[in-house]
Specification:
This protein is of the alpha+beta class. The chain has 16 helices and 10 strands. The strands form 3 sheets. The protein has a 4-stranded antiparallel β-sheet with strand order 3-8-10-9. A 4-stranded antiparallel β-sheet has the order 5-6-4-7. Bound molecules: (R)-mevalonate (MEV). Belongs to the HMG-CoA reductase family.
């Protein structure tokens, strides 16, 4: 077992790598070589990445791909996607092209409210607390003036603050539940700074509030933090076309395809085991764009899945129907995204991704990201309800297998050629490669 290390963060990068290599690897030189192979030769760029987090030893590459031909609200986009899963970008591109020829994607931001809470314990009469909150509410706004000044200039700020009684669920537990508009920033720092000031105001003012008994004056703030659940920060995306224009696959009529597709969505609407995988497919598209544009994909993931269970049962994020000869497919999802601040101003590739998208506002980025999710879902369901997912998947995976076995250019050509007509499986590729090498 490895011994614990103390003062690790104070070691130099070189010392850290040496310690790790010596302590954890059977071949330390080889490990060091691999770690350093991923360093950037541009020292300034490397320093920038080193400083994003603590204890950086190297860079972890993900491919940055692009999916062109996304027609969204009449505007054409090339969407950057950072993702390791082999079939995602190809699927997005295919779905983009399919819908570009059928009117494209329509996207609308329904609202963009963010939420933050101060969680506190108050042991006393509820009426006194309500009176206290009413009296001091303006102070929450005035005492955060220095924080909110700039945001207000951009049209954002604190929207409202409510006192919420949660004592039914947890003894003596109350909240300040605050809503915010953060315009083009995701707003995490802004919201958390406001909340921490609310907490200070709450505690200080309580000490001076005359109606309070000595016990009541002693409000205990447990924590102040934004919520990644943003059910009022919703974007709606949709596609539709006459069923007669759905023709894509020679093995299935457009009517049968539309019916099977809607059924597949219905199944995800009522069956949580399927809904999770269905939504995972949506997140393939969403996370890839969120990551490429320097946004927080964990926050998005957490918020989206909470939204998918908002009615007490986990369900599909997307919906589909056929009506009067039309096929429609749509989704409403919460997305708290930023196009200024955070990594968006720091990471050179994020800047490239943003410029590729025409430097969108946060609202426009919400639309683009949601479209990438719906496109991905469409592509997955189209494969699943027609050819099955493995055909396309394994074709893309072929390259990974070839890389794993360090196939030469000539071997690659032969393998790709062979598997044009044969079913790809890991063992079939390995057997074919073996035969070639004999
Ligand atoms: C794989 O990453 C995603 C899918 O499983 C999504 C789905 O089943 O809808 C193909």
């Amino acid at each position: 077992m490895t011994k614990a290390v103390s003062g690790f963060s104070k070691l130099s990068k070189e010392e850290k790598i040496n310690w790790i290599a010596e302590t954890h690897f059977s071949n330390p030189e080889e490990a060091i070589k691999t770690i350093k192979k991923y360093w950037n030769s541009d020292a300034d760029l490397q320093k920038l990445h080193d400083e994003f987090i603590e204890n950086t030893i190297s860079n972890f590459y993900l491919p940055l791909g692009v999916a062109p031909n996304f027609l969204i609200n009449g505007k054409n986009y090339t969407i950057p996607m950072a993702i390791e899963e082999s079939s995602v970008v190809a699927a997005a591109s295919k779905a983009a092209k399919f819908w570009a020829n059928r009117g494209g994607f329509k996207a609308t931001v329904l609202n963009s409210e963010k939420i933050g809470q101060v969680h506190f314990i108050y042991k006393g009469k509820k009426e006194n607390l309500e009176e206290f909150f009413k009296t001091i509410k303006p102070k929450f706004f005035t005492e955060t003036q220095s924080i909110t000044k700039n945001m207000q200039k951009r049209g954002g700020g604190i929207l409202d603050i409510e006192l919420r009684d949660k004592t039914f669920d947890l003894e003596n537990y109350y909240q300040l539940h605050a809503t915010f508009e953060t315009k083009d920033s995701m707003g995490a720092n802004f919201i958390n700074s406001c909340l921490e000031q609310f907490a200070k105001t709450l505690k200080q003012e309580a000490l001076q509030f005359e109606l309070f008994s000595e016990d009541e004056k002693n409000i205990q703030v447990v924590m102040s933090i934004l919520s990644n659940y943003v059910p009022n920060c919703i974007v709606r995306v949709e596609v539709s076309c006459p069923i007669s224009e759905l023709k894509e696959d020679k093995h299935i009529s457009q009517e049968e395809f539309a019916e099977k597709f809607v059924r597949a969505v219905n199944i995800a609407e009522i069956e949580p085991f399927r809904a999770v995988t269905h939504n995972k497919g949506i997140m393939n598209g969403i996370d890839a764009v969120v990551l490429a544009t320097g946004n927080d994909f964990r926050a998005v993931e957490a918020g989206v899945h909470a939204y998918a269970s908002r009615n007490g049962k986990y369900t599909s994020l997307s919906h589909a129907k056929t009506e009067n000869g039309m096929f429609s497919f749509w989704m409403e999802i919460p997305l708290a995204l930023g196009t200024v601040g955070g990594l968006t101003n720091l990471h050179p590739l994020v800047k490239v991704a943003m410029e590729m998208l025409g430097n969108p506002s946060a609202h426009e980025l919400m639309q683009i990201v949601a479209v990438a999710g719906l496109a991905q879902n469409f592509a997955a369901l189209r494969s699943l309800t027609t050819t099955g997912i493995q055909q396309g998947h394994m074709k893309m995976h072929l390259m990974n297998i070839l890389n794993q076995f360090e196939a030469t250019e000539e071997e690659r050509k032969k393998v790709v050629n062979h598997f044009e007509k044969n079913t790809v499986s890991h063992s079939a590729v390995v057997d074919y490669l073996d035969a070639l090498r004999k």
